[in-house]
């Protein structure tokens, strides 16, 4: 499979800057805990937090998984140990809102938080399932139902380093 650019790096940077302004405005003067779902969101959150103007930001990284080595979600979402978020304003950050199961699981695990909002780089509404989170509070781009890589997103550990968000297409067979 070969990566084909879908969203160029320049567009990603512009949209992340816009999201950072909105989040900063919405959380002006308030401490914020960013609960980052790993591994795919690491590029996104690094750029996002550097552009935010919030006086007190803490990061907590939680490993979330439902893919394994496949391009199709298994449906079973696992999260690593969650921090104590009692009384905190929480922003759950993920790379992509697909079926909605991962974000629903992460939001439910924020027991005792004062507030919980969600932020995703990519939203793929065609893939929602019952019981999944229906929409994120902050969305970078809405995309069609395609498997994407780049800007932190991977396929079996590959392609995270690409600056663009790309789709994966089968390489043409030689004639």
What does this structure look like?
The longest helix is centred in the N-terminal third of the chain and has 18 residues, at 9-26. This protein has three helices and nine strands; from the N terminus they run E-H-E-H-E-E-E-H-E-E-E-E. Strand 5 (89-97), helix 3 and strand 6 form a beta-alpha-beta unit. The model has no long low-confidence stretch (mean pLDDT 90). It has a single domain (2-69, 76-169), classed as Rossmann fold. The strands form two sheets. Strands 4-3-2-5-6-7 form a six-stranded mixed β-sheet, with helices on both faces. Strands 1-9-8 form a three-stranded antiparallel β-sheet. With 175 residues, the protein is α/β, with parallel strands linked by helices. It has helices spanning 9-26, 42-51, 101-108, and strands at 2-7, 32-38, 57-65, 78-79, 89-97, 115-123, 138-142, 148-149, 165-169. Helix content is 21%, strand content 31%.
């Amino acid at each position: 499979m070969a990566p084909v650019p879908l969203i160029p790096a320049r567009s990603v940077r512009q949209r992340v800057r816009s999201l950072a302004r909105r989040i900063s405005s919405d959380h002006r003067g308030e401490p914020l805990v960013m609960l980052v779902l790993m591994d795919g969101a690491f590029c996104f959150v690094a750029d996002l937090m550097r552009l935010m103007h919030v006086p007190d930001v803490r990061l907590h990284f939680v490993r979330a998984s439902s893919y394994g080595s496949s391009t199709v979600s298994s449906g079973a979402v696992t999260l690593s140990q969650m921090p104590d978020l009692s009384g905190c304003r929480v922003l759950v950050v993920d790379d992509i809102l697909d079926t909605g199961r991962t974000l629903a699981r992460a939001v439910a695990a924020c027991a005792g938080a004062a507030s919980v909002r969600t932020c995703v780089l990519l939203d793929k509404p065609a893939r929602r399932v019952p019981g999944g989170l229906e929409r994120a509070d902050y969305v970078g781009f809405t995309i069609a139902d395609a498997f994407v890589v780049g800007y932190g997103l991977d396929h079996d550990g590959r392609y995270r380093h690409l600056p663009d968000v790309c789709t994966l297409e089968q390489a043409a067979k030689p004639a």
